[in-house]
Write a structure and sequence with these properties.
single chain; Immunoglobulin-like; 22-stranded antiparallel barrel; six-stranded mixed sheet; 9% helix; elongated
């Protein structure tokens, strides 16, 4: 059966005891892409389906005694004899009524018997264990109409059917494959908490980027817009369950997604130093559904899955398509509500065009292509800085007005995303598949303003008492030009002395080049590509197998302009290529699964992964120590120093993993148990074993309970262990900008402050929940507790001594002389994160849907070395995200009109720019609305608004110092309301 995750499904034995009589059977499309028939048994009474089977992974053998016990258990299960009278088999093929092609992933069900089968990739199925009598089969597949058929079978007889489905829209209870290595389950059957986001919710959003789309529909998921945040401006860090962005594993069609190249050096405290995947490279129009596993899953999927797993399932239609055009912009400013005189420049006008197209691939395959292209203008939420305003008051007409710097969302240009998903069936039991992507974009952001009187190492060398004057003769070793001293009084340099400098060719000041100061502009050109290919099948003995390989690459080629390498003097360029980060990964996978009998289902697998992180050398002028360095001028490109030959390089790592799963529980049992185990061996720090135990108990037809306990880990990436970075940040104590360096933990300078080789983080996670389903109402409540030890993040900052500066320069950090402070990664603290997720949904009819999502997440630093992780870092880790968040949504069909209204509550939060740790920004409620109406056949137009009433966060009390009116890390942004127009067109075509 086709299985998107690549994990084969299993066949129950014919020994299940089933009642006779007249029954109904369903067939429905599911979210997997495996090429083999699959059965799922569903307990049913009175038409209410109460699934009872559960998935359970198998722990790896950690000793001879443990191995003997597991072997005995398996043999005992195999020995369970078949019972009951001779039973029958119904088999056949489900085909498209239009093309005649076999339809995979269709669902065949007899509700009264609790028998369920899923068709293989070519549409075939085989349902065994059917008692003699007349039964009604119901066949369902998403996008096709319901087909019912009465079938009469005699004892021991095999009946063959050929069933055709007509095209029609149909909604099915969501099936999920994430969280299990065996068969798909519905959300309510799952032993782990899973959110399923269908394509309808993905498309009804103002945003086009997947990271922001998820923020609106998953309450425990947060993503921030990052202004003036180095590489975080290029790839936005996201957080699930209050943990860093690289605590969440990302899958595409169930296969591991490569991580991004960008390291988030400035991640609002919570994600500082994280290297997570770039999910912004995935076009939303390519997706059929998104599965969000809110539970630790390292025992099943490996490193990084501490907070949970995001599984993006691609569309696999072989016909039809859709086109979508979006245009939007932000409101004009707060004058919309409070009557103040704020009318922003830079409204962030955004345009995107996207299309999805399905094509037949021969008689038994498909090729589905998705393309998205867009551009977004920057926003500007800056105010004039205090120092810039002082310069203007003193008569400096060269200072940029009305604001010296731009502070807002970056410009995104030529944002192209392409995804291809393909599959081809060789026969009833084998399918080859491949999918991959190419994406590219350019991101332009800005840095802080450089004051022409006070900026150290460029304009001044003594804090603004005098200007820094360069001596050309001294730099050339030809003596001294005896350049004059230019004092600064009341923000005004001595005009006579400054003119003497300008008139003397052997003297210079950067005020001659930038009389009003300058603001560096920083960004990167991002390239992302991947390809996954494999073949899956089923042996004659019933073993499902899936072998695949994948390659992925993410590259960020940085640029910076409107800046200088001050140590090069008058010959400095003003735009630089500082180098690049490149991340590449190769994976090999083999997954096996086998249904032993109606009680036990086992799975096992192997994975080999190679990853490589590269720092590409920048142009010479971006890192050189120029001839004017000895006179106090700073080296390297100001704002983002280039990577020198000593800093550049590439680092590789490999790891091998083995996993095993065991699921126990009959279809008619109220309980199910899952056990999983995984062992991974890394080339740089050795092996790591993890395990997971899951349990589900169905108390009644409406109420079920679930619980999970698991251990996990996250391995430090080669990039985190070897990269260095220099950032310009605002120091709230000094009230000024400082240069901060992040250096490898194995550097000699870091070792003197406690640095050492990084080790994996380890975690213990517990979850427990209850599910209730009655008619049109569904409710789940889950508690989670995640304890992480040896957690690594960036330390507090340390002041550099002259000896340490010399040492860093020798290690390739050529800009070390300009650093005021540094920090590094460390495994030196522990945290406890716990919270509650509530999800309620009510659908009284096809026209109405109401949903309520609630999340509470709290983090506590339980252990730390205060010399490394100080109180300020603790505040960032514990309070950077809102503790409470809830979303209430109502969607209503009003004749031909469709309406959506959504309200979102954000609790207060802390931002690192607050000088008082007792302060925090207040709570907010934001409202979104959308109205959609048809234009003609298959075409529709929608108008809507996010943050309809234009709410903004509280003002930053240090706004005059940094030139930003709002906090940098507001969880709902700082751009205010956004309104948009969306045009869409969908179609179907023949595939014969």
């Amino acid at each position: 059966m086709r299985h998107l995750t690549g994990w084969s499904n299993t066949e129950p034995s014919s020994s299940a005891r089933l009642p006779g009589g007249r029954h109904r059977t369903h067939i429905a499309r599911v979210s997997d892409t495996s090429g083999h028939p699959q059965r799922r048994l569903v307990h049913s009474q009175g038409g209410n389906h109460a699934p009872a089977t559960l998935q359970t992974p198998l722990n790896p053998p950690f000793g001879r005694k443990a191995m003997n016990i597991r072997v005995f258990m398996v043999l005992a299960l195999l020995a369970i004899p078949a019972t009951g009278v001779a039973q029958s088999t119904i088999e056949g093929t489900v085909r498209s009524g239009d093309s005649g092609m076999g339809l995979g992933n269709a669902r065949v069900e007899i509700p009264a018997l609790g028998l369920v089968e899923f068709t293989g990739a070519t549409g075939t199925f085989s349902m065994t264990g059917v008692p003699a009598g007349t039964h009604t089969l119901e066949v369902r597949l998403l996008g096709y109409g319901l087909q019912t058929q009465d079938v009469t079978v005699a004892s021991g007889q095999t009946v063959s059917l050929d069933i055709s489905l007509g095209v029609a829209a149909f909604e099915l209870n969501e099936l999920v494959v994430v969280g299990s290595r065996t068969r798909p389950r519905t959300v309510t059957e799952s032993m782990v908490p899973v959110d399923v986001i269908p394509v309808s919710e993905i498309s009804r959003q103002a945003e086009t980027n997947i990271d922001f789309l998820l923020r609106n529909v998953v309450p425990s998921y947060n993503v921030n817009i990052q202004p003036i945040s180095d590489a975080a401006t290029i790839t936005r860090p996201a957080n699930l369950r209050g943990l860093a962005s690289d605590h969440t594993l990302v899958l595409i069609n169930g296969k591991r997604r490569h991580r991004g190249a960008v390291i988030t050096w400035l991640g609002a405290g919570l994600s500082d130093g994280a290297q997570g995947p770039d999910i912004g490279a995935i076009p939303g129009i390519a997706l059929r559904q998104i599965e969000v596993l809110r539970d630790g899953a390292s025992a099943q999927y490996g490193s990084d899955a501490i907070a949970g797993v995001l599984n993006f399932q691609l569309k696999n239609d072989r016909s039809g398509g859709s086109v979508q055009v979006k245009q939007g912009r932000h409101f004009d400013g707060e004058a919309f509500l409070d009557g103040s005189d704020r009318s922003w420049g830079g409204h962030g006008n955004a345009t995107s065009v996207a299309g999805n197209f399905g094509f037949p691939l021969g008689e038994s395959g498909f090729a589905n292509v998705s393309v998205e292209y867009g551009n977004q203008e920057p926003t500007d939420r800056a105010i004039q800085r205090n120092d810039a305003a002082g310069l203007v008051s003193a008569g400096n007409t060269a200072v940029r007005t009305p604001t010296a710097q731009v502070w807002g969302s970056p410009r995104v240009s030529d944002d192209l995303k392409v995804f291809l998903n393909t599959g081809y069936n060789f026969d009833d039991d084998e399918q080859v598949y491949a999918f991959g992507n190419i994406a590219s974009k350019r991101v332009d952001g800005g840095f802080f303003f450089r004051n022409p009187n006070t900026r150290g190492g460029v304009f001044s060398g003594d804090g603004g008492a005098t200007l820094l004057i360069g001596d050309v003769l001294q730099a050339k070793g030809l003596g001294s030009a005896n350049c004059p001293v230019v004092t600064i009084t009341n923000n005004v340099p001595d005009p006579v002395a400054l003119q003497q400098v300008f008139d003397d060719p052997n003297c210079f000041s950067y005020q001659e080049m930038f009389p009003g100061g300058f603001t560096p502009q920083f960004g990167g050109e991002v390239f992302d590509a991947s390809i996954v290919g494999g073949i899956r099948g089923r042996t004659d003995s019933g073993v499902n197998w899936d072998a695949s390989t994948s390659w992925g690459r993410n590259l960020a080629d940085f640029f910076i302009y409107n800046t200088v390498n001050a140590a090069l003097g008058p010959e400095t360029p003003t735009d630089f290529d500082p180098g690049l980060y490149n991340q590449e990964e190769i994976n090999l996978n083999l997954d096996l699964s086998y249904q032993v009998n109606d009680v036990a289902n086992v799975a096992a697998g192997f994975e080999q992964r190679e990853e490589r992180f590269e720092i590409g050398q920048g142009q010479d002028e971006s890192w050189q120590i120029g001839p004017y360095a000895a006179q106090g001028f700073s080296s390297s490109s100001n704002g983002f120093p280039g990577f020198s030959p000593l800093a550049a390089g590439d680092w590789t790592r490999s790891n091998t993993a083995f996993y095993a799963d065991l699921n126990l529980g009959r279809a008619d049992d109220p309980w199910a148990i899952g056990i999983a185990g995984r062992y991974e061996d890394f080339s740089d720090f050795g092996g790591k074993a993890t395990g997971k135990v899951s349990f589900r108990f169905e108390a009644t037809d409406q109420i079920a309970f679930r619980a999970n306990a698991n251990t996990g880990f996250r391995a430090p990436t080669p990039g985190q262990q070897n990269a260095f970075n220099v950032s310009t940040v605002f120091d709230t104590e000094l009230g000024d900008l400082v240069n901060r360096g992040t250096i490898p933990s194995t550097s000699e300078v870091a070792r003197t402050r406690g640095g050492r080789q990084l080790e994996p983080e380890t975690s213990v996670s517990l979850t427990g929940g209850v599910m209730y389903e009655a008619g049109a109402f569904r409710f789940t409540a889950d508690y989670f507790r995640i304890s992480i030890s040896d957690r690594f993040a960036q330390t507090r900052t340390f002041k550099l001594s002259p000896a340490e500066v010399t040492q860093l320069v020798s290690e390739g950090v050529t800009s070390a002389a300009n650093l005021a402070e540094f920090r590094f990664f460390t495994n030196d603290f522990a945290t406890l994160t716990q919270g509650i997720d509530l999800v309620a949904n009510y659908s009284p009819g096809e026209a109405t849907n109401v949903s309520l999502l609630f999340n509470y997440t709290g983090t506590e630093v339980t252990e730390r070395n205060p010399e490394v992780v100080n109180d300020a870092r603790v505040d960032q880790l514990e309070r950077a995200l809102p503790r409470y968040r809830s979303v209430l949504s109502l969607s209503q069909q009003l004749g031909s009109l469709s309406a959506l209204v959504r309200g979102t509550y954000y609790d207060g939060f802390y931002d690192s720019e607050l000088s008082d740790p007792d302060l925090r920004y207040g709570a907010r409620v934001l409202f979104d609305a959308e109205l959609s109406l048809p234009l003609a056949d298959n075409a529709a137009v929608a108008i809507g608004a996010n943050n309809l009433f234009n709410a903004y966060p509280d003002e930053n009390p240090n706004s005059g110092g940094v030139g930003a009116l709002y906090p940098e890390s507001a969880p709902y942004g700082f751009n205010g309301g956004y309104y948009y127009l969306r045009l869409s067109y969908d179609w179907l075509w023949e595939t014969r």
